[in-house]
Amino acid sequence: MQPWIAPSVLSADFARLGAEVEAVLEAGADLIHFDVMDNHYVPNLTIGPLVCQALRKYGVAAPIDVHLMVRPVDRIVPDFAAAGATFITFHPEATEHVDRTIALIREHGCRPGLVFNPATPLDYLDYTLELIDMVLIMSVNPGFAGQQFIPTSLRKLEDARARIQASGREVRLEVDGGIKTDNIAATAAAGADTFVAGSAIFGSRDYAGTIREMRRQIAGVTGKGRPVATPIGVRRRRAR
């Protein structure tokens, strides 16, 4: 699969969020990562479906990758689907019935995925990998932006990649947490193909330059550069 760069809006300037999202898409990002925290499952409170809907109304047509750090999960899935989510990923330990939540996401027209914290084993994939479209490996503990990358996440990426390859399915392997230009190559070498970066992109003075450097680093270990088409067949720029 071609690599995707997914800037996390958690690190954007919320006073001008629509313009910030438009800017990173113009700079070459492939999809927008949307971190949803509930001050319950994680010790922070961020954004909900209304913000996702507002981005769609603003004209953002690129895929939106919604990462739910909430408990319970099922109540909010339909709201994010209606607000314009493309992917919806969740933590398996945050729901009572993992299979039911996966089915719920699919029933509402979104692409489901599972998220694994640094110390959460991948055993859930033994029974769900054939049902999902994304595996997200957290390379920090969830709840806050700007944390340092946890190196043992590389082993988990390698394990997840091996499982995906054995399945024969096209499942995205995403990594989230502390991703920067100086470590993105290591995660690509470990098997990641979708890279969430918050402060590394939104905290830089040159969004396009940072994304280009990330792609250069990825290409150095995978031989793959810029995607030849916008992912999932949608436009990447603001609708006009």
Tell me what the structure shows.
Residues 227-240 have low confidence and may be disordered. With 240 residues, this protein is α/β, with parallel strands linked by helices. It has an 8-stranded parallel beta sheet with strand order 1-8-7-6-5-4-3-2. It has a single domain (4-233), classed as Aldolase class I (TIM Barrel). The chain is globular, with a radius of gyration of 16 Å. Strand 2, helix 2 (49-58) and strand 3 form a beta-alpha-beta unit. Helix 2 runs parallel beside helix 3. It has 9 helices and 8 strands.
Brief summary:
The chain has 240 residues and is an alpha/beta fold.
Topology:
Layout: E1 4-7, H1 17-26, E2 32-37, H2 49-58, E3 64-69, H3 77-83, E4 87-90, H4 98-107, E5 111-116, H5 125-128, E6 134-138, H6 153-167, E7 172-176, H7 184-189, E8 194-197, H8 199-202, H9 207-222
Parallel strand pairs: 1-8, 2-3, 3-4, 4-5, 5-6, 6-7, 7-8
Helix pairs in contact: 2-3
- Superfamily at the CATH H level? Aldolase class I
Distance between the termini: 30 Å
Pairing-aware structural class of the strands and helices?
Answer: alpha/beta
* Strand proportion: 15-25%
Q: Please give the radius of gyration in angstroms.
A: 16 Å
Q: Roughly how much helix do the residues carry, as a percent range?
A: 25-40%
Mean pLDDT: 92
Number of helices: 9
**Shape call:** globular
Low-confidence stretches: 227-240
Count of individual domains: 1
Q: Major sheet: size, sense and barrel closure?
A: 8 strands, parallel
